[in-house]
Design a protein that fits this description.
Elements: H1 3-8, E1 13-18, E2 22-28, E3 34-41, E4 45-47, E5 50-52, H2 55-77, E6 86-91, E7 97-99, H3 118-128, H4 137-146, E8 157-159, H5 161-170, E9 174-176, H6 177-180, E10 186-187, E11 192-193, H7 195-205, H8 214-217, E12 220-222, H9 233-239, E13 255-256, H10 257-264, E14 272-277, E15 281-286, E16 299-302, E17 308-314, H11 319-334, H12 341-352, E18 363-365, E19 382-384, H13 393-418, E20 425-429, H14 438-447, E21 451-453, H15 460-474, H16 481-490, E22 496-498, H17 502-517, H18 519-528
Parallel strand pairs: 1-6, 6-13, 9-12, 14-20, 20-21
Antiparallel strand pairs: 1-2, 2-3, 4-5, 7-8, 10-11, 14-15, 15-17, 16-17, 18-19, 21-22
């Protein structure tokens, strides 16, 4: 059946993901192949010292993204989308979205990028004997309580960005387990929020005499494939302002970008992993055994099916690379050279491979914002060299690419070197891997592990959530998510693999040693260079 017929007959599946800088929609056919897409560019705002996206920006972004998808369908197939087989909503994990009696948000959405929750995260980590990161919803909630913020007593519902959008489209206050595991820890046995930790939290805040109990304000946790509601009449109008889309489409449980990354890279089985590298970066390793102890730089979350995952999350990745490419683009324009942006990225990424394995002594820190793994609540992008270092374009670009995954290496060294975690396959996806073979080779050196990249790597999380939506309606009776992905989606395709060379590994190890020592320079930059 061709794509036009699939769309006209309402058999296409839609996935939408809210990334840090782009909202993307992907329409897939019954073979789970993309047949149309749309997008909307947006950016977070620093308001009153906190990173946020406004409610208006969320809905304008969603509607423009869907309108872009409609336009793409019209241009390709000359038809309108009126019915869909399934829909999935995904977004950046974590953060803080509390709602009151009137279903209106009580304070501006506080995103994962904020690092103002240090006291709360530290106290909760000790209380639970479990690493609670700064960006988790429970950290934001408890910090608001510690700060005595007036809105706290009025909370009726607390959710994530994906959970909020799904709620508005379906009326259901639910959340996929992967996204939920970034709010509060999940009990691996019950596949629900950890009851013992909730009880400890209730006792902790009891002296505050708040009007709610934690279990009353949290979403219901769902596993991949479970019923998460259908698109309401109001939801259809919110999504498609043109009015063509009909209500009644089933939605899969809303998921975070970590879960969709795992689905998009077929990394949901034990001993598989993936690295997502874009505006931020994170690695996900599906564990076959528990870690020996909690680590402040390693989060324990879950796959969309509820298996435990060791996650190393870094707030910063490619933003500083993008800033430098823009500088080179400006220079080209001064010279009167018309340069395609994608070609410029490709040339600069490839020249990095000509650099010295240790970047010739150059150092770069890509901290546009704070970086918890490095112990920094705030950041300043920084490039450092000594007078006798090998300052070439190749080394400069190589240090930018190293810096993008430097913090990721620090966290993963704990897993691979200290905890002796074993993986059979690590798959990369995201913008860092767009230039064939470059980011892949550098990450292989950083992790000292073979890295695979699939041709679908560029489809990203929007395709991943579309696959989870497809799983809801196309899985066979009793078919697990890993089997569905293996048999129906990837069919044995593991992508193209690059193994690290001894020279690259030694070079990256030398670089990271200097990088760690140089963190004192970064701390000084934060202290003495004020942010506007």
């Amino acid at each position: 059946m061709n794509a036009q017929t699939i769309i006209e007959s309402g058999r296409a599946v839609l996935g939408i993901e809210f990334g840090s800088t782009r909202i993307k929609a992907v329409l897939i056919d019954e073979e789970n192949k993309p047949i149309a897409q749309g997008s909307h560019t947006w950016e977070n705002q620093l308001v009153d010292g906190l990173w946020t996206y406004s409610i208006q920006a969320i809905w304008e972004g969603l509607q423009d993204c869907y309108a872009s998808l409609r336009q793409n369908v019209k241009e390709q197939y000359g038809i309108e989308i009126t019915r869909l087989a399934a829909i999935g909503i995904s977004a950046m994990m974590h953060g803080y979205m509390p709602f009151g009696e009137d279903n209106k948000i009580l304070v501006p959405f506080r995103t994962w990028r904020n690092t103002n929750t240090g006291q709360a995260a530290e106290e909760l980590s000790k209380l639970f004997n479990f690493n609670i990161p700064l960006r988790w919803s429970i950290s934001h909630l408890y910090q608001a309580i510690l700060n005595g913020e007036s809105h706290v007593n009025s909370i009726k519902y607390l959710t994530t960005l994906a959970g909020y959008i799904h709620w508005q489209l379906t009326g259901k206050k639910v959340l996929g387990i992967g996204d939920a595991s970034g709010m509060i820890p999940i009990d691996p046995e019950t596949k629900q929020f950890d009851a013992s930790m909730i009880e400890k939290f209730e006792k902790l805040i009891a002296p505050k005499h708040l009007s709610w109990h934690l279990t009353d304000i949290l979403p219901k946790v769902l596993l991949a494939g479970e019923d998460a509601g259908t698109l309401t009449e109001e939801g259809a109008k919110l999504l498609d302002v043109s009015g063509h889309l009909q209500a009644g489409t089933p939605l899969c449980p809303p998921e975070g970008d970590a879960g969709t990354g795992m689905a998009a890279t077929n990394a949901v089985k034990v001993r598989t992993g993936n690295v997502s590298a874009g505006t931020s970066s994170f690695s996900m390793i599906v564990l076959e055994k528990n870690l020996s102890k909690p680590y402040s730089v390693i989060d324990i979350v879950t796959t969309p099916a509820g298996l435990p995952v060791a996650m190393v999350h870094c707030n910063n990745c490619t933003s500083e690379i993008n800033a430098w490419v823009n500088i080179f683009d400006e220079y080209a324009k001064i010279l009167g050279i018309k340069q395609n942006t994608n070609e410029l990225y490709t040339r600069l990424f490839n020249v990095a491979l000509e650099g010295d394995a240790d970047c010739g002594g150059l150092l770069s820190y890509n901290y546009v914002s704070g970086e918890p793994v490095a112990g920094l609540a705030d950041g300043r992008p920084l490039f450092v060299r000594a007078a006798n270092d090998k300052f070439t374009l190749a080394n400069f670009m190589r240090t930018q690419l190293y810096a993008a995954v430097g913090v990721l290496k620090i966290g993963n060294d704990i897993l691979f070197k200290d905890e002796k975690i074993t993986v059979d396959r690590i798959t990369g996806h995201g913008g860092y891997f767009t230039t064939k073979g470059v980011g892949q080779r550098i990450l292989a050196a950083a992790l000292n592990s073979p890295i695979s990249v699939m041709e679908t790597a560029g489809e990203g999380g929007a395709w991943g959530i579309a696959l989870l939506a497809s799983y809801c309606i196309h899985r066979q009776q009793g078919q697990s998510l890993p089997d569905f992905l293996d048999e129906r989606v990837f069919a044995g395709n593991t992508g193209t693999e690059i193994s690290p060379t001894p020279e690259d590994v030694a070079g990256f190890d030398a670089y990271i040693k200097a990088y760690k020592q140089g963190l004192e320079i970064e701390k000084a930059a934060v202290k003495y260079k004020a942010a506007k």
